[in-house]
Amino acid sequence: MNLFKRDTNLDAPLASGTRAARQTRNDGNGRNERFGRWTEGIARGMGTPWFLMILSLFCALWLAWNSFGPEEWRFDSAALGFTALTLILSLQASYAAPMILLAQNRQDDRDRVQIEQDRQRAERNLADTEYLAREVVALRLAMKELPDREFVRAELRALLADLEIERGDNSSQDSKGHTDE
């Protein structure tokens, strides 16, 4: 089991029945993911004003108790430079730094995936825009080939004139035919 193994395909979920999903469950990567989320939560918490205020209050109480408290109840001597407090703060700092780095690495992985998805989305949008532009040009060209209003009116006038001429010929034939009888 490699504790430092990083999953490179973070944007694709694992299907529950696949070999990769079973291997993930077996090699402890799920535990690594939980640990990563836990450390990210701690790193996020350490970056808040509340954490700094609580840590400052803790140090102030520690110093006050070990300076002004009853002599027999003091557990960290001011004469030795508050050695226990120094060790506690050093231990906290030694764990905080790797947790912050782990959180940054995980965020970098998420950012990399997000950038790739944004790039793909931008490519799709560009392709869609180019397609729509070609369609608009095709429609404009097709509209140029369509008859305009004046052309249709002229054609209708010509048809109406032809109908009137034809009706005139029919009525003269009817009048001729009517006189013959």
Automatic annotation (TrEMBL):
Residues 15-34 are annotated as: Disordered. Keywords: Coiled coil, Membrane, Transmembrane, Transmembrane helix. The keyword Amino-acid biosynthesis does not apply. Residues 24-34 have a biased composition (Basic and acidic residues). The keyword Transmembrane applies. InterPro entries: DUF1003. Residues 105-132 form a coiled coil. It comes from the Bacteria. The chain crosses the membrane at residues 47-65, 77-102. Pfam families: DUF1003. This is DUF1003 domain-containing protein. It comes from Leucobacter coleopterorum.
